[in-house]
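Re: duplicated header lines in exported structure tokens

Our pipeline writes sequence and tokens for each protein into one text file. With two proteins the header for the second block appears twice in some exports. Here is an export where it did not happen, for reference. First protein block:
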Amino acid sequence: MSDKRLLVNIPNALTLLRIVLAFFVLFFLTASQSQKAVYWGLMLFLTAAFTDYLDGALARKKGLVSRFGQIMDPVADKLLIILTLSAFCYLRIIQGWMVGLIILRELIITALRIQALSGGRVIAAKDAGKIKTFLQMGAIMVLFFVLIYTTGNTFYNYSQGNMKRAIDYLMLIVVLVTIISGVSFLKEYKKVNKG
């Protein structure tokens, strides 16, 4: 099957859909601070996350793994996480420096992964990377529920209370694991390049 045909296969279409959905999640979280908009953002985020699982499963099962998918799939994943966390930062639920470190890590590692792929070297996700992704997605789900709980409550202040401290501790753990997984990837990247 040619690359042109692979470009329009179902897994690749799902990857492109995830990119589009990521921007819609950002839109619904930032354009209107209504509970309905937050629900829409959550539903679209869950849909996008499901396409991540589905496109990989279909590509492996149907033998539709392509260079396009290998490059764009991680880009779509990172974009979904980065845009969603940026929206929560815009809403002042999480701190900017935490999101900044996560974005920096994701941009560097994604660029290095694409560079390795362009040279025919595939760097598989390690346990640290999988744990990082699980924690990031879990933290985003918690943030969605916090936002749903507090939307419309004019007396709630994110800068005060136990909930704010709990969010800060959760995000601190996410940031630390994100950095550790980045260091783990850099070691693997160095090893693969030496090989």
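Second protein block, exported in the same file:
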Amino acid sequence: MECQADRIDETVEVSKVVDGDTLKLKDGRSVRFIGINTPELARKGKSAEPMAKQAGQMLESMLEKTSYTVGLRFGIERKDRYGRTLAHVYLANGRSVEAEMLSAGMAAQIVVPPNLWNRECYRAAEQVARTTGKGVWKSFYRPIPVADISRQSRGFRIISGKVVRVGESKRSIWLNFPRRAGEGYREGVAVRISRKDLDYFKTWDPRQLEDKQVVVRGWVYPYKKQLVMQLRHPLALKIKSSE
């Protein structure tokens, strides 16, 4: 799966592989790959996530073959909230670094509007690894049932469960899962869809997800007494067919 570029906006020299989805350039910029997420290395007292070291090593190996020179294809949004440059990254032979990482099972696809270019190709590249249980799909990125999610969970996760209630507020649509033992009203796990992102949900209406079994991917964070995952694009949610 090559996921070829329609253009290269800039050719740059890499000084360091930060982790499986981030590079440091010789000019001082940091580049965060568009379209993928890899496991986190150890930082700030937290242990490394499974396969994090292997993801970084694979990226390093690819760059060694190109003398640490890569091409960048920018997205609509050029920087993330941390000030990192957002880009699709290409090797000298035209192959997509993101597609290589996805196909090898070293990354999961993420879809963050407005940077949606190549999303279908990345989805197909990930499916190769996911259906064969490669790399992160052996265990770490396999969906976690909502009932098994630790209240201390943070960061990128893939979760599964039944939507028992769809709530609406002024700014958001809320998908609520069954509360676990000991949890009260407004506690538990929920998925938030901002009304600003509803234009991306044209193939199906999230308000119709009540009683559906779903698998959702994104970043888990604490909000009041809940664990919340923000859903920004329908490709980050799969509706499981009833059997």
